[in-house]
Design brief:
Blueprint: H1 7-19, H2 23-59, H3 62-68, H4 70-93, H5 106-118, H6 122-130, H7 143-175, H8 179-202
Length: about 200
Amino acid sequence: MFGIADYGAFVVAIVIFLAIPGPGNLALITSTGKGGVRGGLAATMGVIAGDQVLMWLAVAGVAALLAATPAAFSMVQWVGAAYLAWLGWKMLTAKPGDAPVLNIRPRQYFQQAAAITLLNPKAIVFYMAFFPLFVDPASHQGLITFAAMALTIAVLTFIYGLVVVLLTHHLAERLRANPRITRTLEKLAGIFLIGFGVKLALSK
């Protein structure tokens, strides 16, 4: 199908990849908790936009450039780690009545989620290593094949994000009546974000 070898396995692999806990999932959950379904969907679109940029950069060979230039890779890696850690610290130290770390306006949710996605340089390397596994050399159609793969990932990400957003919104409605639980969850989210940043900084 469009030069993609074992399309079914490709879809399953993407779904598994989406379900792995990480900054993207946390962005969807946090955005939904703060801005409702609208904010969560905006964050979902931000994740999709960031992923699409990284995928096409990988196709263009940026991953090879980063791998061949450790200084450039390290710089992007540290920027991403610092951003995640800063966002986590803001959430961890927020006090009742403070302005929310994530603004309720959907446009900012989109930007926040896109930035979190884009500042993960390992995603570029992942796509560079992942795509060849599902490209059929005998029927490969160049950019058409990669476009079909990118579109599939975008559609699956939207469906996955929609499910996460709706489930999170349903739970948020029940928890909103208890501010203490909401603050606790925000602190936990901040700790996880700092953890993601530290992991990104220390990973090789």
